[in-house]
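Q: What residues go here?
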């Protein structure tokens, strides 16, 4: 099976971050297709301890909470070939079909 990974998570090749419905189910589907994904923001900034004293309650930022639950990092970067990118795109299309 073809494996497509997110490379250099903190370095030169940035993944593409998208907003999706049914994130966990899509992640499982893409993993079964050999495509690595990651949750981009596990918690919204207001819910993180480092920001809690400055920003107030996480519930004051409903958009941040929604985005944290829906964003997903995909391995779509310049090091991938056209065939790899097509594999990712087609897997996502199959999921939402």
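A:
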């Amino acid at each position: 099976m073809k494996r497509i990974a997110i490379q250099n998570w903190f370095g030169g090749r940035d993944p593409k971050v998208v907003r999706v419905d049914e994130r966990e189910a899509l992640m499982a589907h893409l993993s079964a297709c050999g495509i690595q994904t990651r949750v981009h923001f596990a918690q919204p900034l207001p819910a993180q301890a480092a920001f809690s004293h400055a920003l107030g309650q996480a519930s004051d930022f409903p958009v941040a909470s929604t985005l944290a639950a829906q964003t997903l990092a995909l391995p779509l970067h310049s090091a991938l070939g056209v065939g790899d990118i097509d594999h990712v795109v087609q897997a996502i299309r199959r999921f939402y079909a």
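A: Context that may help when evaluating the design: The helical segments are 23-32, 49-55, 62-70, 82-96. The mean pLDDT is 82.
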